[in-house]
Specification:
With 95 residues, this protein is α+β, with helices and mostly antiparallel strands. The chain folds into two domains: 39 residues, YefM-like domain (YefM-like fold, 3-Layer(aba) Sandwich); 50 residues. Helices cover 65% and strands 16% of the residues. The protein has four helices and three strands; from the N terminus they run βααββαα. A three-stranded mixed sheet has the order 1-2-3. The protein starts with a strand and ends with a helix.
Length: 95
């Protein structure tokens, strides 16, 4: 169930709102004159949302690319390429 509070609670009950967003890892929706105005969330929850949206974007991009070509790669080919790139990166960082 979403936490919905009037925006005045941000000033009057900041500690309570802070506790809610950290303990539940869920946002608190703030209203102004009965209408949605802002969302408050913990930094951890915000960063998790950013990470999830980045993953979603990359999956969508991969899906579009897969539709545009018939070329497919095996699991072994993908991981061999990743290992080679990591090895090159480690070598270049050591120099």
């Amino acid at each position: 169930m979403p936490h919905i509070r009037p925006v005045s609670d941000l000033r009057n009950n900041f500690a309570d709102i802070s506790r809610i967003v950290h303990e539940t890892a869920e946002p608190v929706f703030l209203t102004k004159n009965g209408y949605g105005d802002m969302v408050v969330m913990s930094m951890e929850a915000y960063e998790r949302k950013l990470f999830e949206s980045e993953i979603y974007f990359k999956l969508k991009e991969a899906e579009l690319e897969a539709k545009s070509t018939d070329k497919r790669f095996s699991h072994e080919e993908v991981f061999n390429e990743l290992r080679a790139r990591l090895a090159d990166k480690v070598e270049s960082d050591e120099v």
